[in-house]
Design a protein that fits this description.
Helices cover 35% and strands 15% of the residues. The protein has 205 residues and is α/β, with parallel strands linked by helices. It folds into 2 domains: 148 residues, Ribosomal protein L4/L1 (Ribosomal Protein L4, Chain: A); 41 residues, no CATH class. α4 packs across α5. The longest helix is centred in the middle third of the chain and has 17 residues. The chain is elongated, with a radius of gyration of 27 Å. It starts with a strand and ends with a helix.
Length: 205
């Protein structure tokens, strides 16, 4: 598969042959769903917690005598049926993460890259650099290119460019090793540098 290479001035600077196995693979919606679910599950803090009876503050004394009151017997004011008592089977601190085979993760990344290429929303940049590191200049370039929601993946990781793009709404910049399915799908446009293409092909072949 051959894709055009452009620069930040929206000028064509050649073309690049990309691997069909990475950028022209079958788009598997089921695999994308599994990988995104796996990613988001790993992000969950899992810090939600309720107190059980042993953790509730209060006396251990029996509230009233067993017999003769005409009411139900009670053993503790900290029981679940009492106001301010413990919670039965409530949430506890835990990890929501689950395992996912490496082959499925790789297939998910291929599907995400291929879906952007299929929809015509994959762009190849010659290089990304911002000598002045000015957000204003970069915002003008993105407006000219029509990128309002884009993920830019660069292998070199130019610090000036990343700093300038940081304050632009809807623009994310990631290094090649940080490329992931969720971030690719959450932005409308995917932008790769030539170096990033080479690194991704090396990673996924």
């Amino acid at each position: 598969m051959k894709l055009d290479v452009i620069n930040l001035d929206k000028k064509s600077v050649g073309s690049l042959d990309v691997a069909d196995t990475v950028f022209g693979a079958e788009v598997r919606g089921d695999i994308l769903q599994r990988v995104v679910r796996w990613q988001l599950a790993k992000r969950q803090a899992g810090t939600h917690k309720t107190k059980v009876i042993s953790e509730v503050s209060g006396t251990t004394k029996k509230p009233f005598k067993q017999k003769g009151t005409g009411g139900a017997r009670q053993g503790s004011m900290r029981s679940a049926q009492m106001r301010g008592g413990g919670v039965i089977f409530g949430p506890v601190v835990r990890s929501h993460a689950h395992s996912l085979p490496k082959k499925i993760r790789a297939l998910g990344l291929k599907s995400a890259l291929s879906s952007k290429a299929k929809d015509g929303k994959l762009f190849i940049l010659d290089t990304v650099e911002s000598k002045k590191g000015k957000t204003k200049d970069l915002a003008k370039s993105f407006a000219k290119l029509g990128w309002s929601s884009a993920l830019i993946i660069d292998a070199a990781g130019d610090e000036g460019f990343a700093r300038a793009a940081r304050n632009i709404k809807g623009i994310d910049v990631l290094p090649t090793q940080g490329a992931n399915v969720y971030d690719i799908l959450r932005r409308d446009t995917l932008v790769l540098t030539k170096d990033a293409v080479a690194k991704l092909e090396e990673r996924l072949k």
